[in-house]
Specification:
The complex is a heterodimer. Chain A is mainly α. Chain A is built from four helices and three strands; from the N terminus they run H-E-H-H-E-E-H. Chain B folds into two domains: about 120 residues, no CATH class; about 70 residues. Chain B has four helices and eight strands; from the N terminus they run βαβββαββββαα. The chains are: A mainly alpha, B alpha+beta.
Chain lengths: ~100, ~200
């Protein structure tokens, strides 16, 4: 995932995965969350989600919540992940505010 | 009622997935697979969908982890061979694989190069890779496999050039043939890159 950490711009997938993990979820529940919240606009394949989870775990933005059940591993957003998601939210708010001012929308 | 079918698709994962989906459309669900065989049982036509995943680049640990993740997503998953090698004690070097997966043996990842993934048909397309960067990464894996063959046979062709010109020519032809999939995968990668830019 090509997230621009310095500029704060995240890919849509990264942002949604972080948001989905404000409460613990396993892989399938993350896919369902994203599909539901976007009304089916963004459907994440299991392979793509696996790559995203691996990458975010390495960055320390999400972590395993409970690995006692190997068949149903749940993940949760970390403090750093929350910080990144909230930073992205501020960036998007600023963007929509500027766009609204210009377009009058 | 079960049905045994003998087929070998090698590394042609898309053909294999297409064939399994055609079987499912005809009311046959895969229940087992061997090196050359597939066992099916009767199901409602179109009840299941299949995808075939390439995992030969992964270490044994990561391959198992990925399989468990897919199962956790509610899919049924089988390991499948892309090779037809019955030897005992096979050791295979995969220069294109991740660290930990470059040396493949019968005890680890050899003959477990693919995963057949099954889901109950919910009317939506069954794709494991959906984001453009992930699709590109997946295609690059295949391109690099073929590229390693091209490099190997080109090297062999060069090595035999002055000693055995005929052998050198044969290796050269194989190198050129293995370059075709490299180009085809690269074209698909570029198409995805272009479509990504067109959306901006």
């Amino acid at each position: 995932m090509r997230d621009n950490v310095r500029g704060g711009a995240l890919t849509e997938v990264t942002f949604f995965v972080l948001l989905s993990l404000y409460e613990p979820r396993h892989g399938y529940a993350i896919m369902q969350f994203i599909e539901e919240k976007t009304n089916g606009r963004l459907v994440l394949g299991a392979g793509s989600l696996y790559g995203a989870i691996e990458s975010l775990c390495k960055k320390g933005w999400i972590a395993l919540y409970d690995d006692s059940d190997v068949r149903r591993r749940e993940y949760i957003v970390t403090a750093l992940g929350r910080q990144i998601a909230e930073q992205e939210l501020r960036r998007l708010r600023e963007l929509t505010q500027i766009a609204g001012e210009i377009t009058g929308g | 009622m079960t049905k045994n079918v003998t087929r070998f698709f090698g590394g042609f994962t898309e053909w294999q997935a297409r064939w399994l989906n055609r079987m499912a459309d005809d009311g046959w669900r895969m229940i087992r697979t061997g090196k050359l065989t597939y066992v099916f049982e009767r199901c409602a036509p179109g009840q299941y969908r299949y995808a075939v995943e390439f995992i030969a680049d992964k270490s044994q640990r990561n391959a198992e982890k990925y399989k468990a993740f897919l199962e956790d997503c509610g899919y049924k998953v089988w390991y499948k061979n892309a090779n037809l090698n019955y030897s005992i004690g096979k050791v295979h070097w995969r220069p294109w694989a991740e660290a930990g997966g470059q040396i493949s043996t019968n005890r680890t990842t050899f003959n477990k190069e693919l995963l057949i993934v099954e889901k109950e048909n919910d009317g939506k397309p069954f794709e494991l890779h959906t984001t453009p960067p992930d699709k590109i990464a997946f295609l690059k894996k295949w391109r690099n496999v073929w590229l390693s063959y091209t490099a190997f046979f080109a090297f062999m062709g060069a090595a035999f050039l002055f000693q055995t010109p005929i052998a050198s020519a044969v290796f050269g032809i194989i190198a050129l043939l293995s370059l075709i999939p490299v180009i085809l995968y690269q074209v698909r990668i570029e198409k995805i890159r272009t479509s990504e830019h067109l959306q901006e």
